[in-house]
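Next up, a specimen:

>
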Amino acid sequence: MRPQLSLCADVRGAVAVIGALALTTLLGMATISVDLARGYSQLISNQRAADAAALSAALAYQRANADAAILLPTAQDLAVANGLTNATVTATVVNDVPTAGAKAVKVTLSTPVTYAMATALGYRGSYAVGATSYASLSAPSAIAPPCILALAPTGTGISTSGGATIDTPDCSVVAVADIANRGTRIAAKNIVSGAGNVLNDWGTLTTSLLRYAGSFTNPSWNANVPSADKRVNAATTITDPLADNADLATARQAIGTSVAPRAIGNPATPVGADWVIGWSPSSNVEAFRKGNSGNFVIPAGKYTIGRLTIDGGVNVQFQSGSTITIANGLAIGGGSSVAFGDVALSVNGGFDSGTMGVTMGDGSLAIGGGSINFQGTSSFGNGPVTINGTLALGGGSKLTLGVGNHGFGAIDLSGGGSMILGAGDLDVRAGIAVGGGSTLAAGAGSYRIGPDASGTAIKLSGSAVFLMGDGPFSAGGDIATAGGSRIVFGRTANHLIKGNLTVAGSALFATSRYTIAGNLTNGTGGAKWPYDDTAITGKTYGRTLEGVDVTGYDMAGINVSFVLSGTVNLAGGAYTKLIASSTSVAGGAIADLLIDSLTGSSTDWAAGAQNLFVGAVHLPNSDLTMSGGSSTLSNGQCFMLIARTITASGGAAAGSACASIIGTGSGSGGNSTIGLVR
């Protein structure tokens, strides 16, 4: 029997050990050393070939979707390519190499070495020189980045029931605690329970890696689960990828802040004589009358008036260049036409435009406290406007203000009234209320809206419309809109909302960060976008937003981030399309971050809500429930959901079509790699 010679390899691969030849004499040892050197030379060649074969077989195995039949022919081809035509080769997948739960391809390679000089001592034939190499199929604990991540430390982290589905084919579904699939399907690149168990009932688990720290439970009759070679019983460290995000920490500091409206007060109006303009005018205006008609023209000048009364059915023209102060109110009778040229007009004691309304050119308008009533159609040119009281506009009345800063005590539109503001700052001390069928359209500028007595900054009734231009925005209270209403937010770095944002109608969110001291709620759904505002602004809103089609949605935001103290509730038939920004903006939207809140309150995405989300929804302390046919999908883009627990029931669907978004969510995760391990 000829001896077997085996050698031990270093960390690159296990090798057969070349045994010692029995030596009896010093001369024999010298003779044997020649054959020993030949054996070691062959060992080096074999080890190189085994290493190359293991690496190539591992690559081929992954590319063939873990088909073990590819291993041996690949390893044999590599041996031949290295000149080892007479090698004996084996190739298999082994478990727990290099660590528990890992897998590797093992290649063994053996070639014969014929005796040369040792024949003088009686040795005949050959001896075998073997080499072994392991190529890891993945780095230890390699897990695809999660798209669905539940952080609850115990209990059930992710649960499905009924017809619910979760589909993330290129990323992972991960929970620190248990994963329980009692629904239709969970399909993911990896399904991982870091410290808990995985339970499957009648549904399907589709994954290339099912990893769990505790146990895997599945009915014996259900074959719709990963095969045994795709299951790993090992713990995995799971962390929140956004826990230490500096941008988020900074953004949260702005929650609960707002910018107060600039102070406005009553204008200075010295005491003067009363004026009565009509068919029986007071003596101090008789000179402005044209003959015996009802026409009055007041030339340019400085006029200090006590109370100005304009009777019904007359025509009055204040020519440009005038400065007019009225101390005790302006009252215009029905049917009168009153026009101010380019003037500076200041009024205390109340303002009543009459049924026909008033017009004014460029200049300034300042109205103090008291009863303020605009009727008919009124228009003012460019210049600052301040009304230190509630501007009431109803009964189909229209008011147009030109370019300039605008300040109001409060705005109350109702009964189909409309108000158009040109570019300029808008300051409202005690809230904006827009009633059904009424429209408020404002241009670019800074928006500073204070709350009314109930804490509401903006309130829209059914079918009300509020259209805003670009510019900094601050609401010092809640924003609440009713079904059928529409609200449009302009572009700016950061919208500050010191209260809840409740949308029961339709809303458009232009590029911005939205900092909300409360909840964001999309209610039962409203009129879908687009909206053709032909009667007021002559524009179409919501066909596209920031170049993205938002047709058919009732709430849409593009390049947005929402940072809340409350949560995000989506109910009824709400259709929501929200897309995060791909880049961060200083003081504004945060790259890939769609929604963030540290609230411990529950989150509910309820029956019928249809959501298209792109970006990360980060609710690490909230229990999120998707129910009753709601869907949260990404339409081929990236969506990441992080919550304390995630429950999908009754036909709810969630999914993402990306490989990664923010971080990996695992302290030991990483991309798949192949490498020699020993």
